[in-house]
Specification:
- About 30% of the residues lie in helices and about 25% in strands.
- It is α/β, with parallel strands linked by helices.
- The chain has two domains: about 1-130 and about 290-320, Quinone Oxidoreductase, Chain A, domain 1, CATH 3.90.180; about 135-265, Rossmann fold (3-Layer(aba) Sandwich), CATH 3.40.50.
- The strands form three sheets. Strands 3, 4, 5, 6, 7, 14 and 15 form a seven-stranded mixed β-sheet that branches. The protein has a six-stranded parallel β-sheet with strand order 10-9-8-11-12-13. Strands 1-2 form a two-stranded antiparallel ribbon.
- Strand 9, helix 6 (about 185-190) and strand 10 (about 195-200) form a beta-alpha-beta unit.
- Helix 4 crosses helix 5 (about 165-170).
- It is globular.
- The N and C termini lie close together (about 10 Å).
- The protein binds NADP nicotinamide-adenine-dinucleotide phosphate.
- NADP nicotinamide-adenine-dinucleotide phosphate binds next to helix 1 and strand 9.
């Protein structure tokens, strides 16, 4: 079978399509026939071995895992011994971030416990687009606390992988949503349902007149000190932190600043691939409240081009790879 692999850490050039042995499921494992996979920023980090501290787990000198890709939707093809909860033919989906990666292949071997059942009414393409980014959107919005109808919610960095889910989920919860991203993406943000849009290259939302009850900061380019300015009294700020420096600042300074200013500013602990998140996403997709946006589809042979599309920042929604 074909699989996208890499033997060293590095940029997209380290990727190559290889012919490898078809996987055989061990105890507690299944082999999934991949029907669709999607790319996330986490896949670029995984390629680069970024942040460097993560290499303690993924291989200090070179990656111990050659496989690439976390978001997967497909059908169970083979079930290993002593494996319960899955049968051949079952439709499944997952975020394989902490379950071995390797979604960019004809087949992937995974622990059965990592898979959630995929309802019949959700297409493989929509399912592949959602687990990683949709869960990050759900968990970050959950971390700002319950959103009351009419609350003003800011999604900063709304036009990437996570943002389109966050905008739609916040709208579904009745928020008045302001979405910030590059000027080229403002039409896309309006189409997602954002009530107000801001071009970050022209306007600094933290210095404007608007005040927000809740901020989900996906871009994570500013300090908590900046975002404190645009919160209402009692307002909540949650970043999806991207680097160690930001993590230290937001974990240490955020709660202190929040206490001093009557706001709530804190990072959250992300838990990948939670069944309850995938079930909630399935409900939101089924009801039409969330429509996964798909930018382009690539074959496995063109998966490197798919990665280049992701890193270009030009995508409007998720980039899919269909083996
Ligand atoms: N903390 C955790 O537990 C955790 C877990 C998983 C993933 N992550 C990380 O969280 C991030 C998830 O976000 P994502 O996948 O949606 O990223 P993304 O696709 O890179 O989207 C970020 C968006 O923010 C925009 N942006 C850049 N600078 C901005 C600014 N100053 N103000 C407002 N918007 C700005 C970008 O636009 P441009 O195209 O113009 O740059 C882009 O559209 C990833 O980096 C991932 O690695 C964190």
């Amino acid at each position: 079978m074909r699989a996208l692999v890499r033997d060293t850490y590095g940029p997209v050039d380290v990727l190559r399509l290889a012919t490898v042995e078809s996987p055989v499921p061990g105890p507690g494992e299944v082999v999934v026939r991949v029907r669709a996979a999607s790319l996330n920023m986490a896949d670029l980090d995984h390629l680069l071995g970024r942040p460097r501290a993560s290499r303690v787990a993924t291989g200090l000198v070179r990656p111990t895992n050659r496989g690439v890709g976390v978001d997967v939707a497909g059908t169970v093809e083979a079930v290993g011994p002593e494996t319960t909860g899955c049968r051949p033919g079952d439709r499944v989906w997952a975020d394989l971030f902490d379950a071995g990666h390797g979604a960019l292949a004809d087949r992937v071997r995974v622990p059965a416990s990592a898979l959630s059942p995929l309802p019949d009414h959700i297409s493989f393409d929509d399912a592949a687009a959602a687990p990683h980014s949709g869960s990050l959107a759900l968990q970050s919005l959950g971390a700002v606390g319950p959103i009351r109808p009419g609350e003003r919610v800011l999604i900063n960095g709304a036009g990437g992988c996570v943002g389109p889910f966050a905008v739609q989920i916040a709208k579904a919860r009745g928020a008045e949503v302001t979405a910030v991203d590059h000027g080229d993406k403002l039409d896309f943000l309006r189409e997602l349902g954002a009530d107000h849009v801001i071009d970050y290259t022209r306007e600094d939302v933290t210095r404007g007149d608007r005040r927000f009850d809740a901020v989900v900061d996906i871009a994570d380019t500013r300090s908590v000190l900046a975002f404190r300015r645009c919160l209402t009294p009692g307002g909540r700020y949650v970043p999806i932190v991207r680097g160690i420096g930001s993590l230290v600042e937001k974990v240490l300074l955020g709660p202190v600043l929040g206490r001093l200013t009557g706001t709530r500013m804190h990072a959250f602990l992300w838990s990948p691939n939670q069944r309850r998140d995938l079930d909630e996403l399935a409900g939101l997709i089924a009801s039409g409240a969330v429509r996964p946006r798909i930018d382009r589809r690539y074959g496995l042979d063109d998966a490197v081009l798919a990665f280049r599309r992701l890193e270009s920042g030009a995508a409007r929604g998720k980039v899919l790879v269909i083996p």
